[in-house]
Amino acid sequence: MACDNGAVMTMTAQVIAVAADDEHRFAKPWRPEIVLVEGLGVEGDAHLGITVQHLSRKKKDPGLANLRQVHLIHAELFDELADKGFAVAPGDLGENVTVRGIDLLGLPEGAVLALGAEASVRVTGLRNPCVQIDRFQKGLMAATLNKAPDGSLVRKCGVMSVVLTGGVVRAGDAVRVASLPEMFVALPVV
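Below the sequence we write its predicted structure tokens.
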């Protein structure tokens, strides 16, 4: 099924795994469930907050809005990386929610995703892979980047979002595009 803006979603889009960590570590441990808190992020996660919690960004400007409250990544990336010889599991790249069956990278800025029965998030932008990925597995950062036909960099490490509606999210929950903005704006790096 295609969305009006070209983003593709299957009828079986679902949450594969959820993760959170109360410390700033690269990988996040799996949880049976996470609780999204409106306007803040994932309860008990180090990135919870109204203002930026990413350590390097916080050091530069601690008053910036936190556009990285919830990190979502598509499990299809793990399949692609496995074909390249990398073993990556949910939570390994620091994401909170691993999904399958939805083209996260093809969504526009401002798309709203419904997660499970209650929660919703607004997509704010792309996650920019950093050198920590290579510390996790040598060569992994290059494997998560591509070049578009126009020469621009394609970042494949998922999307960042803010919590619009709080609620519990578990593996097996449905994921759907709840709304799209009227105008398609490509995802910026946040």
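The longest helix spans residues 75-83.
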